[in-house]
Specification:
The complex is a heterodimer of chains A (about 375) and B (about 600). Chain A contains 15 helices and nine strands. Chain A is an alpha/beta fold and about 375 residues long. Chain A has two domains: about 190 residues, NADH-ubiquinone oxidoreductase 51kDa subunit (Rossmann fold, 3-Layer(aba) Sandwich); about 80 residues, Up-down Bundle (de novo design (two linked rop proteins)), CATH 1.20.1440.230. In chain A, about 55% of the residues are buried. Among the domains of chain B are: about 90 residues, Ubiquitin-like (UB roll); about 110 residues, Alpha-Beta Plaits (2-Layer Sandwich), CATH 3.30.70.20; about 220 residues, Fe-only Hydrogenase (Larger Subunit), Chain L, domain 3 (3-Layer(aba) Sandwich). Chain B is globular, with a radius of gyration of 25 Å. Chain B starts with a strand and ends in a 10-residue tail after the last helix. The chains are: A alpha/beta (about 375), B alpha/beta (about 600). The interface between A and B is large, with 38 and 39 residues.
């Protein structure tokens, strides 16, 4: 287990001139880039943690001459606001990472799918994009990026719903397989990564896989941006080495009265105080796309859960039964138990329902509702009933 | 074998063709996996999740309808996890569903009801959500009722409307708990691009989409002593009605249907097949006249290709989506409307009936016929030509209400005058049938010889391919038609509106040049019509089509122009095809409609 260690890589100022690393990387072969990313052990920073290098490798191996690179900037997970910071401060690093992915996979076109609420950034992003396109052109590198605006649906952060949205359709998740590396946006082989992941790949090109590996643990290499919010005196965005214990994290960021931490946003897990010590922040423990919400003893965990369930009830795309109706039932159910219309035993019925939602929902949204539901109901049962 | 994959389901090895799903593979083994959003005619949605199964090594359950069978896969369909999930899912659907089954038109023909009876044996597990939902019920369309309280959001209707029919009147609106099936700007169905084809009804697993039924109005008319109730039956009803009355798809019940109608109390039991023959006379003549004007006289106001106009779903489709081609439509009314116009004129005169006392009822495989009957231009008899259009399904309900044992009814014939028909008329019920019937007559008219196909079966226009083409060389013509000597008559047939769209696009782009195009709005033609018994599958439609062609080959007369009652009506009433009287009663015009 690691201690809390602040690092400054993602926003760290370049010692060299802008786009230098990107330009240097263009001289590398596709295999070299992919091997380097695989060796680094980098796993996707959006939350799911799929090995990035493998994603690139699978896409590169596809025979289709048309491929795409998609940057998922639909940052919508409650409590997550780190991509906003990246896109505001260092958009060139995102574009560079996407272009390097294009170099590695053979894609000539990238889409950056920008959260609807980030419309205000568009002008600045486009300005930087002009610069990027100039640089690419100067280097005779055929890769263009288009920014596509989201329209405010959380579900469009799910990769296949995001593809549908880019294609101009209703944002609904697709059946998998096929996976994006085989059939993604416009049914072409596609790499889709989170904003931070693309920045990380650029960092790996700069410092090398070996250096990147020095941070973090075997399962969770590198550092990660955390969006810290809730009952903390120092809310904000922090880049920390992966693999610390939650206890250390709370020590650093808590207000001295932390009762629980919601790790990974509404779709993540709620960890109660008694488990802080044994909980590792990382893929071997509790993974997170960056959201860390701290709750002190003044908070009602019933209200916290109800807020999450209401969020999912509204943000489910509505196509699949377990998620659409399950969310409504979870909300109604905890309300009924709280009011006394249903006995406490009904919580067991709801937990079984959450089990079904986890295993039978079509996409990650419905599958992950059970995470917060289970972890909050299990650990704070009294608060649910009384 | 490179193209097969081997997997194991419930411990049994099975090999299937690559590309098949786990559900397909389970079917091979006769392992029943329940489904709901899955439909053979549609693309896979995988959204109801009822068909989930356990795949060894997978974290979550997988939807068997959407999961491709893969080499070495191990699937279990009967585990605690699977059974729990299915039960929960059906319970969830029920909690959102107005499960007032005895008040539902689809009672006893509902896939959700079947699943509930198979999988749910306890008291209601979850909280009822129906009360607070504020569901809406759209009953404004003359053809279709959309009741959101019975909708389970499987999107079969959306896929039908979009994939099969290229209409997209139905779509998904809102998200989460508010997600629902809706229309453009949530306008009522009558006020959007809906063609009233009713294909959504055929595929709705519950009672969310049903036809607007006129059963009580028909009963009222029958029991009104003042009224003389005439009934006509469309070609495709006689090979499908039995399905709703306990018989197998593909059974021909023409005689029993006539008997049942008489027992129900209709005063005249007549046949739309008669006006199908009449349509051939009018439409065939119109085609030849158009060809002469276009090919010989160089009259550019005459549009070729000519499109058939029998299918009211197709008519409304072209009015919305290709209004620039309205002049290409044959001006012939559909057989239903020709019949209606003649019932209150010719038939009334001959039988000495007061047309104001006639109630004209049609039994149709179609829901669009209800809209067609109500078109303002369909009043050439001086009255509404067809008063009530009901579906094959509605007739089956009436037969049940009357307590008849349909299967044991004796075979009876139709009443005379407008009851006689030919094999050419009955094949109107299958895709390609109008084309075949028209060619049988038109070819003979211009050459004096029968069509050069064995047994008059023009097989190139038959079948279930979405678009079929056939051409026939006109040689050795009679002197009157010598201007067509050597012309290769090019025809095409399309069924289902997506195929119609495809043909229209080809014509628009100049990629296809036809003289005559038959379009039927529904897959398979009228045999697969929106008013036919539910369910519908490719297999069922195939059996119905085979029955249609069996009925044709069993008919004494198989060419429309040889129908003695047709010869009689021209002699005694109409004069000649496209004559003055025909124009007045049998032809119509079309209306440009909005695109949204």
């Amino acid at each position: 287990m690691k201690n809390v260690k602040r690092v400054d890589i993602i926003f760290g100022a370049y010692t060299q001139e802008k786009y230098k690393v990107f330009e240097q990387t263009l001289s590398k072969s596709s295999d070299q880039i992919i091997s380097e990313v695989i060796e680094s052990g980098l796993r996707g920073r959006g939350g799911a943690g799929f090995p990035t290098g493998l994603k690139w490798k699978y896409t590169a191996a596809e025979a289709d001459p048309v491929k795409y690179v998609v940057c998922n900037a639909d940052e919508g997970e409650p409590g997550t606001f780190k991509d906003r910071e990246i896109l505001t401060k260092v958009p060139r690093k995102v574009f560079s990472g996407m272009a390097i992915c294009g170099k590695a996979t053979g894609a000539k076109k990238g889409f950056l799918y920008l959260r609807g609420e980030y419309l205000y950034m568009l002008e600045n992003l486009n300005k930087e994009l002009d610069v990027f396109h100039e640089v690419a052109k100067k280097n005779n590198f055929d890769f263009t990026i288009e920014i596509v605006m989201g329209s405010g649906a959380y579900i469009c952060g799910e990769e296949s719903a995001l593809f549908e949205s880019i294609e101009g359709k209703r944002g609904e998740p697709r059946n998998k397989p096929p996976y994006p590396t085989v059939s993604g946006v416009f049914s072409k082989p596609t790499v889709i990564n989170n904003v931070e992941t693309f920045v990380n790949t650029l960092m790996i090109m700069r410092i090398g896989a070996k250096e990147f590996q020095k941070l973090g643990t075997t399962d969770s290499r590198g550092s990660k941006l955390f969006s810290v919010s809730g009952d903390t005196p120092i809310a904000g965005i922090y880049e920390l080495e992966l693999g610390m214990s939650l206890e250390d994290f709370v020590e650093e960021f808590g207000d001295g009265d932390t009762k629980a931490v919601q790790v990974g946003g509404a779709s993540g897990f709620c960890v109660p105080r008694k488990k802080f010590k044994d909980t590792i922040i990382g893929f071997e423990g509790v993974p997170t796309g960056g959201s860390m919400m701290l709750f002190n003893s003044s908070r009602s965990m019933y209200n916290v859960l109800k807020n999450y369930v209401e969020f999912f009830e509204e943000e489910s795309c509505g196509q699949c039964t377990p998620c659409r109706v399950g969310c409504q039932q979870l909300k109604k159910g905890i309300e009924a138990v709280k009011k006394g219309d249903k006995s406490a035993a009904y919580l067991n019925t709801l937990q079984k329902l959450a089990d079904t939602m986890k295993v039978a929902s079509k996409c990650g949204l419905g599958q992950s509702v059970a995470n917060s539901f289970y972890s909050i109901v299990d650990n704070f049962k009294e608060e649910m009933i009384y | 074998m490179a193209n097969t994959v081997n997997l194991k389901i419930d411990g049994i090895d099975v090999s299937v063709e690559a590309g098949k799903t786990v559900l397909d593979a389970a079917k091979e083994l006769n392992i029943h996996i329940p489904t709901l959003c899955y439909h053979e005619d549609l693309c896979v949605a995988g959204n109801c999740r009822v068909c989930v199964v356990e795949q060894e090594g997978a974290r979550n359950l997988v939807a068997s309808c959407a999961m491709p069978a893969q080499e070495g896969m191990v699937i279990n369909t009967n585990t605690l996890k699977v059974r729990n999930a299915r039960k929960h899912i059906v319970e969830l659907l029920l909690s959102e569903h107005n499960a007032d089954c005895t008040k539902c038109y689809k009672n006893k023909n509902c896939e959700l009801q079947d699943l509930a009876s198979d999988l749910v044996q306890t008291e209601q597990l979850y909280i009822d959500l129906v009360e607070e939902k504020e569901y809406t019920k759209d009953q404004q369309s003359p053809s279709i009722i959309k009741d959101d309280s019975r909708c389970i959001r499987c999107q079969r209707c959306v896929r039908t409307c979009n994939e099969l029919q290229h209409v997209s009147a139905l779509g998904v609106a809102y998200k989460g708990d508010h997600m629902k099936i809706s229309t453009f700007f949530e306008n009522p169905m009558y006020d959007v691009v809906c063609t009233n084809c009713g294909q959504c009804i055929n595929r709705c697993p519950t009672g969310a989409l049903i036809e607007k039924n006129y059963i009580d109005q028909v009963w009222d008319a029958i029991h009104d002593p003042e009224k003389h109730v005439i009934v006509q039956t469309a070609p495709a009803t006689r090979i499908a009605l039995g399905e709703d009355l306990g018989m197998e798809p593909g059974e021909i019940v023409t005689g029993k249907m006539a008997a049942s109608l008489r027992k129900l109390g209709f005063d005249s039991v007549l046949d739309t097949d008669f006006t199908a023959d009449l349509t051939i006379m009018e439409e065939g003549t119109e085609l030849l006249t158009r060809l002469k004007k276009a090919l010989v006289d160089g009259d550019t106001s005459v549009k070729v290709p000519m499109f058939t106009s029998c299918s009211p779903g197709w008519i409304k489709f072209i009015e919305h989506q290709y209004p620039e081609y309205l002049d290409n439509l044959s001006t012939c009314k559909s057989p239903q409307q020709m019949f209606g116009a003649l019932a209150k004129t010719y038939y009334a005169q001959k039988k000495n009936l007061d047309p104001s006392k006639i109630v004209s009822v049609s039994i149709m495989p179609c829901t669009a016929k209800k809209f067609e009957a109500a078109r303002p231009e369909m009043r050439d008899s001086g009255y509404q030509d067809v008063d009530l259009g009901i579906t094959t399904r509605e007739l089956a309900v009436m037969i049940k209400q009357a307590g008849m044992d349909f299967e044991t009814l004796p075979d009876e014939g139709f009443d005379s005058l407008m009851g006689e028909s030919t094999g050419a008329a009955v094949i109107f019920g299958a895709t390609g049938g109008v084309m075949e019937a028209a060619l049988r007559t038109a070819y003979e008219l211009v050459t004096g010889r029968e069509v050069p196909f064995e047994n008059l079966d023009i097989t190139p226009v038959r079948g279930m391919e979405g678009v079929r083409e056939a051409s026939i060389k006109l040689e050795g013509l009679l002197p009157d038609w010598s201007f067509l000597e050597g012309v290769e008559l090019k025809t095409a047939v399309a069924h289902g509106l997506t195929n119609a769209h495809q043909i229209m696009e080809a014509i628009k782009k100049g990629e296809a040049s036809y003289h005559f195009v038959e379009v039927m709005g529904c897959p398979g033609g009228c045999i697969g019509g929106g008013g036919q018994p539910i369910p519908t599958t490719p297999e069922i439609r195939k059996k119905r089509a085979e029955a249609i062609y069996r009925e044709d080959s069993g008919m004494k007369i198989r060419k429309s122009h040889e129908n003695p009652e047709i010869q009689q009506i021209y002699k005694e009433f109409l004069g000649e095809p496209l004559g003055h009287k025909s124009h007045e009663l049998l032809h119509t015009h079309y209306t440009k409609r909005k695109r949204h």
